[in-house]
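Sample pair:
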Amino acid sequence: MRDVAVTEGDKVAAQMRLGISVDGYGIGDLVDEMSAASTDEIEELLGVYDASYRVVEDLQVGGVRRDSLVKAARIEAGLRRFLRAGNYGAFTDTFQDLHGLPQLPGIAVQRLMADGYGFGAEGDWKTAALLRIIKEITRGATGGTSFIEDYTYDLTPGNEQVLGSHMLEVCPSIADEQPSCEIHPLGIGDRDDPVRLVFDATPGRAVLLSMLDLGDRFRLVANDIEIVAVEEKLPRLPVARALWRPLPDYFTATEAWLTAGGPHHSVLSSAVDSEAVTDLATIAGIELVRVDADTTLQGLLNELRWNDGYYAREAR
Protein backbone atom coordinates (compact mmCIF):
# COMPACT_ATOMS: atom_id res chain seq x y z
CA MET A 1 0.00 0.00 0.00
CA ARG A 2 1.43 3.35 -0.98
CA ASP A 3 2.15 6.14 1.49
CA VAL A 4 1.83 4.06 4.67
CA ALA A 5 5.21 4.57 6.31
CA VAL A 6 4.04 3.07 9.62
CA THR A 7 4.17 -0.38 8.03
CA GLU A 8 7.82 0.05 7.07
CA GLY A 9 11.01 -0.24 9.12
CA ASP A 10 14.66 -1.28 9.07
CA LYS A 11 14.73 -4.80 7.62
CA VAL A 12 18.48 -5.14 8.17
CA ALA A 13 18.12 -4.27 11.87
CA ALA A 14 15.22 -6.72 12.12
CA GLN A 15 17.39 -9.49 10.72
CA MET A 16 20.21 -8.66 13.14
CA ARG A 17 17.94 -8.38 16.20
CA LEU A 18 15.14 -10.84 15.48
CA GLY A 19 16.68 -13.20 12.94
CA ILE A 20 14.01 -12.59 10.31
CA SER A 21 14.62 -11.85 6.64
CA VAL A 22 12.12 -10.05 4.44
CA ASP A 23 12.02 -10.84 0.72
CA GLY A 24 9.95 -9.15 -1.97
CA TYR A 25 8.36 -10.68 -5.07
CA GLY A 26 6.26 -9.47 -7.94
CA ILE A 27 2.62 -10.51 -7.88
CA GLY A 28 3.22 -12.48 -11.07
CA ASP A 29 5.23 -15.05 -9.10
CA LEU A 30 2.14 -15.80 -7.02
CA VAL A 31 -0.12 -15.84 -10.08
CA ASP A 32 2.18 -18.46 -11.63
CA GLU A 33 1.69 -20.70 -8.58
CA MET A 34 -2.07 -20.16 -8.74
CA SER A 35 -2.09 -21.22 -12.40
CA ALA A 36 -0.04 -24.31 -11.55
CA ALA A 37 -2.51 -25.50 -8.90
CA SER A 38 -4.26 -28.66 -10.05
CA THR A 39 -7.98 -29.31 -10.25
CA ASP A 40 -7.57 -31.88 -7.47
CA GLU A 41 -6.01 -29.26 -5.18
CA ILE A 42 -8.90 -26.89 -5.81
CA GLU A 43 -11.54 -29.56 -5.30
CA GLU A 44 -9.92 -30.66 -2.06
CA LEU A 45 -10.03 -27.12 -0.71
CA LEU A 46 -13.63 -26.66 -1.77
CA GLY A 47 -14.50 -29.82 0.12
CA VAL A 48 -12.81 -28.43 3.23
CA TYR A 49 -14.74 -25.17 2.89
CA ASP A 50 -18.06 -26.97 2.54
CA ALA A 51 -17.38 -29.21 5.54
CA SER A 52 -15.78 -26.68 7.87
CA TYR A 53 -17.91 -23.56 7.51
CA ARG A 54 -21.51 -22.44 7.17
CA VAL A 55 -21.35 -21.68 3.46
CA VAL A 56 -24.02 -19.23 2.30
CA GLU A 57 -26.40 -20.50 -0.37
CA ASP A 58 -24.90 -18.47 -3.23
CA LEU A 59 -21.49 -20.12 -2.65
CA GLN A 60 -22.75 -23.67 -2.24
CA VAL A 61 -22.54 -26.29 -4.99
CA GLY A 62 -24.93 -25.11 -7.69
CA GLY A 63 -25.08 -21.61 -6.20
CA VAL A 64 -25.02 -18.58 -8.46
CA ARG A 65 -21.66 -17.42 -7.07
CA ARG A 66 -19.94 -20.78 -6.60
CA ASP A 67 -17.30 -19.73 -9.12
CA SER A 68 -16.15 -16.99 -6.73
CA LEU A 69 -15.42 -19.67 -4.11
CA VAL A 70 -13.53 -21.69 -6.74
CA LYS A 71 -11.39 -18.62 -7.48
CA ALA A 72 -10.79 -18.07 -3.76
CA ALA A 73 -9.67 -21.69 -3.46
CA ARG A 74 -7.23 -21.23 -6.34
CA ILE A 75 -5.75 -18.20 -4.59
CA GLU A 76 -5.30 -20.24 -1.40
CA ALA A 77 -3.73 -23.13 -3.30
CA GLY A 78 -1.32 -20.73 -5.01
CA LEU A 79 -0.38 -19.02 -1.75
CA ARG A 80 0.30 -22.34 -0.05
CA ARG A 81 2.47 -23.50 -2.93
CA PHE A 82 4.38 -20.22 -2.94
CA LEU A 83 4.99 -20.19 0.84
CA ARG A 84 6.06 -23.82 0.93
CA ALA A 85 8.46 -23.35 -2.00
CA GLY A 86 10.17 -20.42 -0.30
CA ASN A 87 10.04 -21.94 3.20
CA TYR A 88 8.34 -18.79 4.46
CA GLY A 89 6.55 -18.53 7.79
CA ALA A 90 4.82 -15.19 7.22
CA PHE A 91 3.68 -12.93 4.40
CA THR A 92 2.10 -9.60 3.57
CA ASP A 93 -0.09 -8.41 0.73
CA THR A 94 -1.41 -5.14 -0.65
CA PHE A 95 -4.65 -4.04 -2.26
CA GLN A 96 -2.75 -1.88 -4.73
CA ASP A 97 -0.81 -4.64 -6.48
CA LEU A 98 -3.31 -7.26 -7.62
CA HIS A 99 -2.56 -7.77 -11.29
CA GLY A 100 -3.69 -11.28 -12.21
CA LEU A 101 -5.74 -11.87 -9.04
CA PRO A 102 -9.51 -12.07 -9.56
CA GLN A 103 -10.26 -10.97 -5.98
CA LEU A 104 -8.43 -9.86 -2.86
CA PRO A 105 -7.22 -12.83 -0.78
CA GLY A 106 -9.70 -13.18 2.07
CA ILE A 107 -10.50 -16.71 3.16
CA ALA A 108 -7.05 -17.82 1.96
CA VAL A 109 -5.27 -15.44 4.35
CA GLN A 110 -7.61 -16.32 7.20
CA ARG A 111 -7.02 -20.05 6.82
CA LEU A 112 -3.25 -19.64 6.46
CA MET A 113 -3.15 -17.70 9.72
CA ALA A 114 -5.17 -20.47 11.36
CA ASP A 115 -2.44 -22.89 10.22
CA GLY A 116 0.24 -20.81 11.94
CA TYR A 117 1.43 -18.41 9.25
CA GLY A 118 2.08 -14.79 10.14
CA PHE A 119 0.29 -12.07 8.17
CA GLY A 120 0.33 -8.30 7.91
CA ALA A 121 -1.87 -6.23 5.60
CA GLU A 122 -0.63 -3.35 3.45
CA GLY A 123 2.95 -4.61 3.43
CA ASP A 124 3.24 -4.60 7.23
CA TRP A 125 6.07 -7.11 7.62
CA LYS A 126 6.71 -6.25 11.29
CA THR A 127 3.19 -7.33 12.28
CA ALA A 128 3.43 -10.39 10.02
CA ALA A 129 6.66 -11.42 11.77
CA LEU A 130 5.25 -10.72 15.24
CA LEU A 131 2.12 -12.75 14.47
CA ARG A 132 4.25 -15.70 13.34
CA ILE A 133 6.34 -15.49 16.52
CA ILE A 134 3.24 -15.48 18.75
CA LYS A 135 1.76 -18.38 16.76
CA GLU A 136 4.94 -20.37 17.45
CA ILE A 137 5.05 -19.42 21.13
CA THR A 138 1.44 -20.52 21.62
CA ARG A 139 1.46 -23.65 19.47
CA GLY A 140 -0.79 -26.19 21.22
CA ALA A 141 -2.09 -23.64 23.74
CA THR A 142 -5.74 -22.83 24.37
CA GLY A 143 -7.02 -19.73 22.60
CA GLY A 144 -6.20 -18.06 19.30
CA THR A 145 -4.08 -15.35 17.70
CA SER A 146 -4.96 -13.00 14.85
CA PHE A 147 -3.96 -9.94 12.87
CA ILE A 148 -6.33 -7.07 13.69
CA GLU A 149 -6.69 -3.29 13.85
CA ASP A 150 -8.99 -0.82 15.58
CA TYR A 151 -11.99 -0.37 13.30
CA THR A 152 -14.37 1.79 15.28
CA TYR A 153 -15.31 2.66 18.85
CA ASP A 154 -18.34 2.53 21.14
CA LEU A 155 -18.04 5.64 23.26
CA THR A 156 -21.06 5.03 25.50
CA PRO A 157 -20.05 6.79 28.74
CA GLY A 158 -18.87 4.24 31.29
CA ASN A 159 -18.88 1.39 28.77
CA GLU A 160 -16.33 2.47 26.16
CA GLN A 161 -15.22 -0.37 23.88
CA VAL A 162 -13.08 -1.00 20.80
CA LEU A 163 -14.34 -2.93 17.78
CA GLY A 164 -11.38 -4.57 16.09
CA SER A 165 -11.54 -6.04 12.60
CA HIS A 166 -10.04 -5.73 9.14
CA MET A 167 -11.55 -5.60 5.69
CA LEU A 168 -11.08 -9.37 5.24
CA GLU A 169 -8.20 -10.85 7.18
CA VAL A 170 -9.01 -11.97 10.74
CA CYS A 171 -7.90 -15.44 11.89
CA PRO A 172 -10.66 -17.96 12.69
CA SER A 173 -8.57 -19.31 15.59
CA ILE A 174 -10.25 -16.61 17.73
CA ALA A 175 -13.79 -17.45 16.54
CA ASP A 176 -16.51 -18.07 19.11
CA GLU A 177 -18.57 -20.20 16.73
CA GLN A 178 -18.38 -21.95 13.38
CA PRO A 179 -17.47 -19.20 10.89
CA SER A 180 -19.82 -18.32 8.06
CA CYS A 181 -18.32 -18.36 4.56
CA GLU A 182 -19.76 -15.32 2.79
CA ILE A 183 -19.22 -13.00 -0.17
CA HIS A 184 -19.81 -9.25 -0.11
CA PRO A 185 -18.82 -6.19 -2.16
CA LEU A 186 -15.56 -4.41 -1.37
CA GLY A 187 -14.78 -1.03 -2.90
CA ILE A 188 -11.04 -1.27 -2.21
CA GLY A 189 -8.87 -3.11 -4.73
CA ASP A 190 -11.03 -2.76 -7.85
CA ARG A 191 -11.56 -6.51 -8.15
CA ASP A 192 -14.40 -9.02 -7.90
CA ASP A 193 -16.21 -9.34 -4.57
CA PRO A 194 -13.96 -11.36 -2.22
CA VAL A 195 -14.94 -14.42 -0.19
CA ARG A 196 -14.33 -14.22 3.55
CA LEU A 197 -15.09 -15.95 6.86
CA VAL A 198 -17.40 -13.96 9.14
CA PHE A 199 -17.53 -14.53 12.92
CA ASP A 200 -17.26 -12.89 16.36
CA ALA A 201 -14.30 -13.45 18.66
CA THR A 202 -14.54 -15.62 21.77
CA PRO A 203 -15.03 -13.50 24.91
CA GLY A 204 -12.30 -13.60 27.55
CA ARG A 205 -8.88 -12.31 28.53
CA ALA A 206 -6.48 -11.40 25.74
CA VAL A 207 -3.52 -9.19 24.90
CA LEU A 208 -3.01 -6.71 22.07
CA LEU A 209 0.55 -6.51 20.72
CA SER A 210 2.34 -4.27 18.25
CA MET A 211 5.97 -3.85 17.29
CA LEU A 212 7.42 -0.58 16.06
CA ASP A 213 10.79 0.59 14.80
CA LEU A 214 12.06 3.66 16.69
CA GLY A 215 15.19 3.95 14.60
CA ASP A 216 17.63 3.04 17.38
CA ARG A 217 15.62 0.07 18.68
CA PHE A 218 12.47 -2.00 18.32
CA ARG A 219 9.67 -1.54 20.84
CA LEU A 220 6.97 -4.07 21.70
CA VAL A 221 3.76 -2.47 23.00
CA ALA A 222 1.32 -4.72 24.86
CA ASN A 223 -2.15 -3.89 26.16
CA ASP A 224 -4.15 -6.26 28.33
CA ILE A 225 -7.75 -6.39 27.10
CA GLU A 226 -11.01 -8.18 27.82
CA ILE A 227 -12.89 -9.44 24.76
CA VAL A 228 -16.65 -9.15 25.24
CA ALA A 229 -19.63 -10.61 23.39
CA VAL A 230 -21.02 -8.70 20.41
CA GLU A 231 -24.64 -8.09 21.42
CA GLU A 232 -25.80 -6.25 18.28
CA LYS A 233 -26.06 -7.54 14.73
CA LEU A 234 -23.66 -5.74 12.40
CA PRO A 235 -25.07 -6.13 8.87
CA ARG A 236 -22.90 -3.29 7.54
CA LEU A 237 -19.71 -4.91 8.82
CA PRO A 238 -19.79 -8.36 7.13
CA VAL A 239 -16.30 -9.35 8.28
CA ALA A 240 -14.80 -11.11 11.28
CA ARG A 241 -14.51 -8.89 14.36
CA ALA A 242 -13.58 -8.69 18.03
CA LEU A 243 -15.09 -6.33 20.59
CA TRP A 244 -12.98 -5.54 23.63
CA ARG A 245 -12.47 -3.31 26.65
CA PRO A 246 -8.86 -2.21 27.05
CA LEU A 247 -7.30 -2.09 30.52
CA PRO A 248 -7.13 -0.12 32.69
CA ASP A 249 -9.88 1.82 30.89
CA TYR A 250 -10.54 3.05 27.37
CA PHE A 251 -9.19 6.59 27.73
CA THR A 252 -6.05 5.70 29.69
CA ALA A 253 -5.25 2.75 27.42
CA THR A 254 -5.79 4.77 24.24
CA GLU A 255 -3.56 7.65 25.34
CA ALA A 256 -0.94 5.23 26.67
CA TRP A 257 -0.92 3.23 23.43
CA LEU A 258 -0.49 6.33 21.28
CA THR A 259 2.10 7.85 23.61
CA ALA A 260 4.13 4.64 23.37
CA GLY A 261 3.92 4.87 19.57
CA GLY A 262 1.54 1.95 19.13
CA PRO A 263 0.61 1.65 15.42
CA HIS A 264 -2.80 0.88 13.92
CA HIS A 265 -2.02 -2.77 13.10
CA SER A 266 -1.68 -5.23 15.94
CA VAL A 267 -1.73 -8.87 16.98
CA LEU A 268 -4.61 -9.99 19.20
CA SER A 269 -3.97 -13.15 21.20
CA SER A 270 -6.04 -14.99 23.79
CA ALA A 271 -3.40 -17.75 23.88
CA VAL A 272 -0.35 -15.83 25.15
CA ASP A 273 0.14 -14.50 28.69
CA SER A 274 2.13 -11.57 30.08
CA GLU A 275 4.98 -13.82 31.24
CA ALA A 276 5.53 -15.14 27.71
CA VAL A 277 5.42 -11.61 26.28
CA THR A 278 8.03 -10.47 28.81
CA ASP A 279 10.20 -13.49 28.02
CA LEU A 280 9.94 -12.73 24.28
CA ALA A 281 11.12 -9.15 24.76
CA THR A 282 13.97 -10.29 27.03
CA ILE A 283 15.14 -13.04 24.66
CA ALA A 284 14.94 -10.77 21.61
CA GLY A 285 16.58 -7.86 23.41
CA ILE A 286 13.82 -5.42 22.53
CA GLU A 287 12.01 -2.84 24.64
CA LEU A 288 8.67 -3.81 26.17
CA VAL A 289 6.00 -1.28 27.16
CA ARG A 290 3.02 -2.84 28.92
CA VAL A 291 -0.36 -1.20 29.37
CA ASP A 292 -2.37 -3.12 31.97
CA ALA A 293 -4.78 -2.73 34.88
CA ASP A 294 -2.16 -0.86 36.93
CA THR A 295 -1.06 1.61 34.23
CA THR A 296 -1.24 5.33 34.88
CA LEU A 297 -0.34 7.95 32.27
CA GLN A 298 2.23 9.61 34.54
CA GLY A 299 3.80 6.25 35.32
CA LEU A 300 3.95 5.38 31.62
CA LEU A 301 5.54 8.73 30.73
CA ASN A 302 8.17 8.19 33.40
CA GLU A 303 8.85 4.68 32.10
CA LEU A 304 9.30 5.93 28.54
CA ARG A 305 11.74 8.62 29.71
CA TRP A 306 13.74 6.08 31.71
CA ASN A 307 13.76 3.72 28.76
CA ASP A 308 15.10 6.44 26.47
CA GLY A 309 17.97 7.02 28.86
CA TYR A 310 18.69 3.31 29.22
CA TYR A 311 18.78 2.62 25.49
CA ALA A 312 20.81 5.75 24.80
CA ARG A 313 23.41 4.44 27.27
CA GLU A 314 23.30 0.97 25.69
CA ALA A 315 23.90 2.51 22.26
CA ARG A 316 27.14 4.05 23.57
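The chain has one domain: 5-315.
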